[in-house]
């Protein structure tokens, strides 16, 4: 059997999103029996301080929690780390500096997936936390691959934030979906050729059939990247970005 890497999941932000990533890793893995699946170590610490509150409102810095979790994963034997929280990627540089193993970027992987989906210069709508939007995580990543990121108006952003908060409280009802769809429709009306569910709570309530343009799920993109890198340890993992090592 070809040597495989162990996946470390730095999770808990929130717990449902972490479980969703693990399910998508399982679904993305070609397997006929238990032994065909990958070794996954999950560190789910829901006490990590709110990332948006830290970025926008002077809340507690989550970096010490994120670094501690990443170090636990490295010590437990993970070969690389994935983080099923888009907003946590605002702190990615510091976390990477603190651990001896690579950390894949959900944001960069999603940007690469969008670049493969859309023509150069096409607009993509970003549905994300206010923190992710404010620090420009996806605006920067999409610009780097030649795409135009569009974000909701302030009023529409309040609906996105309300939908995310509802999911974190366990509300996966149609009412939560409808909150997110208000912002989604605004972005489509403004010309978005695709939408990104760029908070890991959103794929739990948004489905491709809910919107009139392609809906990209960064959790699924990250799961596919993790499986691709983990299944063959002969593939070099440079800079912590799996799209950089694709054939």
How would you characterize this protein structure?
Strand 1 (7-11), helix 1 and strand 2 form a beta-alpha-beta unit. The protein has a four-stranded parallel β-sheet with strand order 5-4-6-7, sandwiched between helices. A three-stranded parallel β-sheet has the order 2-1-3, with helices on both faces. The chain is an alpha/beta fold. 45% of the residues lie in helices and 11% in strands. The radius of gyration is 17 Å and the shape is globular. Helix 1 (15-28) crosses helix 10 (218-230) and helix 8 packs antiparallel against helix 9. It has two domains: 7-106 and 220-245, Rossmann fold (3-Layer(aba) Sandwich), CATH 3.40.50.1860; 107-218, 3-Layer(aba) Sandwich (Rossmann fold). The longest helix has 16 residues, at 174-189. Mean pLDDT is 94; it is low at 239-247. The chain contains ten helices and seven strands.
